[in-house]
Amino acid sequence: MNLDSAARVRVLSESLPYIQQFTGRTVVIKYGGAAMKEGSLKDQVIRDIVYLSCVGLRPIVVHGGGPEINTWLGKVGIEPQFKDGLRVTDAATMEIVEMVLVGRVNKEIVNLINQAGGSAVGLCGKDGNLITATPSGNEDIGFVGDVNLLDPRILDLLASNHYIPVVSSVAVDETGQAYNINADTVAGEIAAALQAEKLILLTDTPGILRDYHDPTTLISRASIQEARHLIKDGIVSGGMIPKVQCCIRSLAQGVKAAHIIDGRTPHALLLEILTDSGIGSMLVP
Questions:
Q1: Is residue 27 part of a domain?
Q2: Total domain count for the chain?
């Protein structure tokens, strides 16, 4: 047996207790960043999702698609605008957002999962009344919303029948008006509604760092209380704040663990879920 084969066997052996522990459990994966854009990373993430499904876990994928939205806005002559980190979404922009997220990005992910041997079904907040949106309250950013109500029955039905739901973060309010919702927020609310075993956010950073410029300062584990202090003390800052807040909110509603991991690492999902060491930051109640 060569070294590569021996390494594979060790990994399979190490993963067995985790497979036994998590069989039948729901894992909500927020898919984004470089892992969604770079070809080889994209293929690995898709294969990891299919692998998790094949060994008995119930993966549910939630995605955004900011770069693709920007590309299509440029094609129709609309200049992307942002305010306080949020996309300004007027009526014309909302049409493009819905077209791209629901019609292109969602179906591409579904197709990739199916091509890799899984069985995926694409959804948005409109399907089965999955997500009812409410306006964010900031009129300056247009049709950007928050999650008002979430009905996870269609997700539970699909996952229970060995399908992999793929959810885009577009929803409607009670009048039928479409809203763009932050994908991290949607992933956290879905995880909470399903009482998921894990919420996993794929990012372009190693996780939560005490020093943003030093990857060796990774905080591998923190409680809700510790995470709140990290925000208060300014250790968690910028774009990491809403991700950590999303994790805190999901944990407070019953999710067992939340993970912020580097999607640029090959097979990041399997390393985090099915090995002893993991790779990113895990937040726990």
A1: yes
A2: 1
